[in-house]
Amino acid sequence: MIRKLGKRIASAWVNLPLRGKGLVVVLILPATILLAVAASIFLGSTKQPERTAVVVGATLKTRAQIGQARSLILMAETALRSYEITGQQRFLDEYRNAGASLAQALGQLEQLVRNKDVQSRRIQSIRSRLQETEEVMAAILRRVREERGTPETMAALFDEDRAARGRLESEFAKLETDEDRLLGEWGADQTQRAIHTFIAIVATILLGLIASILAIILFATGIVRRVERLQKSSAELVEGQAFHLGSVSDDEIGRLEVTLNNTSKLLQQRDRRLAESHEAYQKQNAVLQSILDRMSEGVIVFDENGRILVFNPAAENIMGMPPIEGPPSAVVDRYGFYLPDMVTPYPTTELPLTRAMRGEAVDSAHIFVRNAQRVEGVWITTSARPLRTEDSACGAILVIRDVTVARRAEEALYQAKDQAEAANRAKSEFLSRMSHELRTPLNAILGFAQVLEMDSLKTDQLQSLEQILKGGRHLLTLINEVLDIARIEAGHLTLSPEPILVSEALDEALDLVAPLALHRGISVSRQVAETWKQHIQADRQRLKQVILNLLSNAIKYNRDGGSVTVSCVAKAGDRLRMEIKDTGLGIPASKMSLLFSPFERLGAEDTSVEGSGVGLALSKKLVEAMSGLIGAESEFGHGSVFWVEFPLIEGQMQRYERCLDPEPPVIAEPCQRPMTVLYVEDNLSNSLLMETVFATRPGIKLLTAMQGRMGLDLAREHVPDLILLDLHLPDMHGDEVLRQLRADRRTKDIPVAIVSADATPGQIERLLAAGAQSYLTKPLDIKNLLAFVDETSAQVQAARTDRDPGSLHDGRFESTWAR
Q1: Over the stretch 704-759, which tens digit does the pLDDT of each residue have?
Q2: What is the three-state SS of 613-647?
Q3: What is residue 467's predicted lDDT score, i.e. its pLDDT?
Q4: Average pLDDT estimate for 132-146
Q5: Torsion, Cα of 404, 405, 407, 411 (10° steps)
Q6: What is the pLDDT of residues 13-33, one digit of tens each?
Q7: Residue 662 has pLDDT above 60, yes or no
Q8: Which of 44, 384, 390, 392 is the most exposed place for a label (fewest CB within 10 A)?
């Protein structure tokens, strides 16, 4: 039982808050003193002698009753004063109760002193004083109850009450003085008892003082020991060690230990996360450093003060020097930065670093670097970007690349280009001279052979002469084809793409090869369909040249009595394919890759079929130059299919019909004198279109010429008011026709409008500068064409009005139309 009680007390003491423990330690001494006093009083009251018990008892009762009465007087006065200060009703109740108790105490006191005459008279005096006091009390209570007293009145009553109670107190004091005799007699007896009581009190106080000192020592020692333990654990915690939690109490230090223990756990978790983050950072940093170390581009990073933070090995290898810090001028001097002229030092204000520090972005700035380590110099490109935080710049990053090899390769490429252009010019000059040198004797051979053919010759001589003409013409064809290939390769081939009716192009070519097919006994058939009525975009003369070559090959390499079939097939992407199928021997699959190679006849050179192996190569280059495709499919022993494919386009007549207004055309007012227009065009469809268009202008007379020289003759003979001139003519080029028109005084003032499918700006500017008034591109915009003709007609009529009617072309008509 005692042990359990001790454990409970110990547990309660441990869990008691420090404030409670301190209070207990502080109260030990006062409690001991109080205990000693209580014990001494107790001991003194029980050890009195029997013989003085009655007297002293009565005296003590009297004094006690007097003291009680005086206490009640004091209590009443205190209650009244408290009420006066606070105004609380409970103090007034205490005041009333004290008055009632005082009357009772006086009655009891009267009983105690009834045998004493002096004290009886003193009691009567006290009673009269008490009555005065009760009257004042009644007046105060009545005023308070009725709430009709003013502060001044109540203050007067309070003062009167204190005065009455003072008199009453005086009477009690006299009564007490009378009792001193008895106290004197009782005092002698109490002297001895007081000595013993004093000794007991002193001993108790000493014991309490010793206990208090011991308690303070134990209390302080316990706190110091626990604080030292906390200090040690905290030091271990700072060093990253685990916090050692001992026995835990529920006081402030115990709670602090628990808090530190929890903090230790949180710190350990944080340390683990920090360690993991640091490890990840180390790995990431290692990866980034590895990337920087292995990059072929140099990377340099500067802070906002221009100090180098990163300078990877590639940068040092490119520059030939380690990092250099200093002002931009020192960097330019030490590294040897020069402008692309390799002589002028790079301006410091234009350095990529300086510009990036200003907040600019720099891309691929070319710098020539030459220093003591890079004597021959290197070319670098530098890209720079400013580094920024959310609110300010914090430096710059530069990425440099060594482009010396590429630069030198570029310079070599330029040199090679110049050499190639020189070689191309030499080639063109050579071909031009060879053409002249070959054609001149060939002209003599063919010319004299034809002269001999007109003489009367023997049969064998005619056969020999026929072989000479045949060989000469074959050689001329070969020369023309070789020259065409050379022109294509040199980029000198001039094309005039325009809308071409498929049936017209095929029929014209088929008509030309019909005699050859008839001679070989080969039937040529057409698979006519709606596709034959469509138009393709191509150069008319070159397309006819390609189709003739394919048809000739289909006939030449066919078997006797075989067949050739021509068809058109629509393909995806608005394209049209023209196919030429023959029933010849076909081509082996192993030789198909050589089909379009120059001078490659695929074994036909061992046969009697004449050829040079240039036709298909030329056809391929011509088709591709016209944005077309060419190909072949063959099965050896069963024949071949050759095809060409071109984009579809709307024909000029179709365009005219589509753009024509549904309402009947407005016929222009007839001219006072007919206006003559000369149209020089070799394409019959285009000529028919122009006749249809000009039918809406009855006052205009249209003349057409299909050759350049014929157009020149008509222009000199009829002196038209307007000439529409195509560029690609069979006998001469359109710009030569324009030159001759401007050189002849009879035609130099006639307005000339170029009508061509070549809409390149350089071509337009060149011909306008050569004297053309306008440039109209194919396919023609009919409304624009008519507007141009009407404008020219108005100028003609105005000129006729202002000038002599017989002089139609004294001045040149200017036009704003140049399309």
Answers
A1: 998 889 999 999 988 999 999 988 888 888 889 999 999 998 898 899 999 886 66
A2: CCHHHHHHHHHHHCCCEEEEEEECCCEEEEEEEEE
A3: 75
A4: 79
A5: 130
A6: 666 676 676 777 777 767 777
A7: no
A8: 390
CA distances from 15 to 4, 121, 191, 364, 480 (A): 16, 65, 48, 77, 121
Task: At 401, list the tokens.
Answer: 């690349």
Say if CB 584 and CB 554 are below 8 A apart.
Answer: yes
For the ranges 613-622, 647-656, 809-818, the maximum mean pLDDT occurs at 613-622
> Could you give the angle at the alpha carbon of 775 between the alpha carbons of 772 and 776, nearest 5°?
145
Which of 504, 502, 642, 634 lies closest to 564, judged by CA?
642
Which of the two residues, 772 and 650, has the higher pLDDT score? 772
Spatial distance between the Cα atoms of 533 and 701, rounded to a whole number of angstroms: 30
- Sequence-distant (6+) residues with CB within 8 A of 285 are none
Q: Order of strands across the sheet with 722-726?
A: 700-705, 675-680, 722-726, 752-756, 774-777
325: which 2 tokens?
Answer: 């810090």
End-to-end CA distance of the chain: 126
pLDDT at 40: 63
Tokens representing 637?
A: 């022993």
Q: Which two tokens stand for residue 216?
A: 């303070």
User: What span, in angstroms and rounded, lies between the C-alpha atoms of 53 and 195?
Assistant: 19
Model confidence at 818: pLDDT above 50? no
Instruction: Give the integer Cα–Cα distance in Å for 817 and 703.
Output: 22
- Contact (CB, 8 A) for 272 and 280: no
Task: Name the token pair of 116.
Answer: 């004493």
pTM exceeding 0.70: no
- The encoded tokens of residue 747 equal 């035609």
Strand pairing of 563-571 and 523-527? parallel
pLDDT at 1 over 90: no
User: Of 699, 702, 692, which is closest to residue 659 (Cα–Cα)?
Assistant: 692
Closest CA to 204 of 350, 55, 31, 66: 31
Per-residue DSSP letters for 172-201?
HHHHHHHTHHHHHHHHHHHHHHHHHHHHHH
Query: pLDDT-derived band of residue 62, with 50, 70 and 90 as boundaries?
Result: confident
CA distance 108 to 67: 13
Q: Look up tokens 């006093």; give the residue.
A: 37
Q: How far apart are CA 663 and CA 484, in angstroms?
A: 49
